[in-house]
Specification:
The protein is 12% helix and 53% strand. The protein is built from one helix and ten strands. Strands 1, 2, 3, 4, 5, 6, 7, 8, 9 and 10 form a ten-stranded mixed β-sheet that branches. Mean pLDDT is 89; it is low at 3-20. Residues 1-20 form the signal peptide.
Length: 142
């Protein structure tokens, strides 16, 4: 009986810590030209947990940009257009979402100054269930 209890507690412990295991890799922001008012950032998010989660919003220091929106690109006839994901970005369990040009990406709106190659910005990802994650994101020429 004691062995069953220990096994049950171990299972609950593992389940609790795999509930919202989010890993973020390959973060980068695209360098902009001097007068740019918007910028873009890309990253890969892997939900290693057993439950779905949602990237609800992203924040950045007010010294970089006024706001950040999660966008996707949709085809409207023969025209590509961006659309904000106002409900956030769904992160299915045991799945990876890769942000890239021409697809899902982060839009930095109302830049305070250009994003210069070699600089670094800090983005904070806010999830529905997982803890927020602050990332140091290098600015690169793409």
């Amino acid at each position: 009986m004691r062995l069953v209890k220990v096994g049950l507690y171990a299972l609950l412990f593992v389940s609790f810590f795999s509930f919202a295991t989010i890993e973020v890799t390959d973060a980068k922001a695209r360098a902009t030209f001097a007068m740019a008012k918007t910028g873009a950032a890309y990253l890969t998010i892997t939900n290693k947990g057993i439950n779905a989660d949602v990237l609800e919003r992203v924040t950045v220091a007010s010294t970089v940009a006024k706001t950040v929106e999660i966008h996707t690109v949709l085809m409207d006839g023969e025209m590509m257009r961006m659309q904000a994901l106002s409900e956030g970005l769904s992160l299915p369990p045991k799945n990876t979402v890769t942000m890239q040009p021409g697809g899902i990406h982060l839009m930095l709106l109302e830049l305070v100054s250009p994003l210069t190659e070699g600089d670094e910005i800090v983005l904070t990802l806010h999830f529905k269930d997982a803890e927020p994650k602050a990332l140091r994101v290098p600015v690169v020429k793409m």
